[in-house]
Fold:
Amino acid sequence: METMHNNPWKILSSEVQYDNKWIRLTEHQVINPNGGQGIYGVVHFKNLAIGVVALDEAQHIYLVGQYRFPLEQFSWEIPEGGGPLGEDALVSAKRELLEEAGLVAHHWTPIVHMHLSNSVSDETGIVYLARDLEQHAAQPEETEQLTVQRIPFEQAYQMVKDHRITDSISIAAIMKIKLMMLEGEI
Structure:
């Protein structure tokens, strides 16, 4: 398969429209690949998105439920959060798993590397499979009011299939684990 490597976009100017400690929104005046003039807004994320599939010996998965402010609804997800761009992603994953689910894992495998919404943002996500789990006390952040549940993996897979799990990182992670199970890797 042949891929294009040259950038067909021309940036005429750029201006930061909004900036906080998590994101920066930049509006670019551009010439698009077909020669038309326009604007392109890009959201730059200042953290790496981290997800963790905590899978125990009985093939149960841990899900975290919380109200998501932007969606104005409750969401079931794998344990996930953000890690500083300069920090090792695995360090961030271990912290998120302990904070949200109160779990410590002794075996870690990276399973997904993804761009979450590459038409408007540069946000990158990494998902780990965490195995050999130990239960500890959860340590949620001040902004988190979490519900944690341990359910059979197949139930979580069904929740993806029937749209009860809609979070993109969780969907990608659960589908990857299902594929790994079907291919005999788990």
Remarks:
- The two ends are 31 Å apart (CA to CA).
